[in-house]
């Protein structure tokens, strides 16, 4: 075994003002884009997400926002 397998995983936490985007901010941004333009960047894979009815669907990973 390598040492990397024995190390404890580090937890990365985004805090307001640290320059990182939180999951909540990514989801809200996707919803804003979907509602305004009918498409947005998928918060999971970064591919194109389109609005179908009341659900955002990603063409890349198949993720959905509803």
Overview of this structure, please?
With 66 residues, this protein is an alpha+beta fold. It has a domain at 22-66. The chain is built from two helices and four strands. The protein has helices spanning 3-6, 23-37; strands at 39-41, 48-52, 55-58, 64-65. The chain has a four-stranded antiparallel sheet, covered by helices on one side. Strand 2 and strand 3 form a beta hairpin. The longest helix has 15 residues, at 23-37. The N and C termini lie far apart (43 Å). The model has no long low-confidence stretch (mean pLDDT 82).
DSSP helix fraction: 25-40%
What value does the Rg take, in angstroms?
Answer: 16 Å
Total DSSP helices: 2
The major sheet is characterized as: 4 strands, antiparallel
User: How many distinct beta strands?
Assistant: 4
Task: Work out the strand percent.
Answer: 15-25%
Outline, from the CA principal axes?
Answer: globular
Question: How much is the average pLDDT?
Answer: 82
Structural class based on helices, strands and sheet pairing: alpha+beta
**N- to C-terminal distance:** 43 Å
The order of strands across the largest sheet is 1-2-3-4
pLDDT under 50 segments (min length 5)?
Answer: none
The ordered string of helix (H) and strand (E) elements is HHEEEE
